[in-house]
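Review form for a predicted model. The reviewer records the input and the model, then writes brief findings.
Reviewer: anonymous (R2)
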Amino acid sequence: MLDSFDFIVLKVFTHPKLQLALNSKCYYFLSPKADAYTMKQKMVIGVAGMPGAGKAAIAKIAKEKGYSVVVMGDEIREETKRRGFEPTSDNVGKIMLKLREEEGPGVVAKKCVPKIANANTDTVLVDGIRSLHEVYELEKNFPKFLLVAVHSSPETRFKRLFLRKRSDDPKGWKVFLERDLREISVGQGSVIAMADYMIVNEGTLEEYKTKIREVLEAATARWTK
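Model under review:
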């Protein structure tokens, strides 16, 4: 029965702006506290950037500032595990494309909406936006939405990923380039081009942290004037 769950169906919508042919209707399962007014009041800062550009550092500083953080890539990694695969770079990439094929290009953003809406802070940072479909999905549900992009050169990013050694990080240059092309194929470049704020991350870590704090302060100030 419905009351045996913590979630209820809040609304059903279609997305005419994008005229999505696949999964144009979506059922959101949100807790009762996440009403329409609450969603309109949330300040949501989306973060986009190619792998290794420095998105995790933005998320870390956002947490230090008291923001909630939702990582879109975690949804894909968890889905990879649910389907019985190891979360390697190749497997995660294949599941990312498969999800979009099965449920539409905005599917990962849709899966994140309940987490954002139910976050216990007024400001939520969403790490890992990959397409304009995802941007529109978040804008539709959270009017106070801004997009931040971070850019680093391919060589810089490869070195960072090689040193990070997360399970889905590329083990060589060829795999790195394949991952980049996969990210671009789903629309990452368009997202970066349309960002409200751009951070170039090619200097020292301290320089980068200073830029992050400046951008986060400017972004939140736009909705708190």
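Findings: The mean pLDDT is 84.
Further findings: Strands lie at 8-13, 26-30, 43-48, 68-71, 123-127, 144-151, 197-200.
Recommendation: see findings above.
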